[in-house]
Amino acid sequence: MKMKDFSKIFLNWLQGEEVLSSTENGRDRSRKGEAPETSLADGLFREQPVKKLERVQLKSFRIFYAVCAVLCCAALQATLLTTVANLPGFGTLSENAEPLEEEYLTQGMEETGATNIVAAIILNYRAFDTLGESFVLFTALCCVTVLLRADAKNQREHLLYRDLTGDNILRFAVSLVAPMIILYGFYVMVNGHLSPGGGFSGGAVAGAGMILLSAAFGFDVMDRIFKEKFFNTLCFCALGFYALSKTYSFFCEANGIDSHIPKGIPGTIFSGGLILPLNIAVGLVVTMTMYGMYCLFRRGCVGGVSGTRNKDRPGKEKNERNGEKEKNA
Amino acid sequence: MKGTVKKKKMLEALTGSYEETAAVILFGIGFTILLFHKNLIKKIIGLNIMDTGVYLLLASMGYIAGKNAPIITDPDGAINAADYINPIPSGLVLTGIVVSVSVTAIMLSLAVRLHKRYGTLDLDEIYMSAVNEHDDR
Question: CB–CB of A140 and B102 under 8 A?
Answer without folding.
Answer: yes
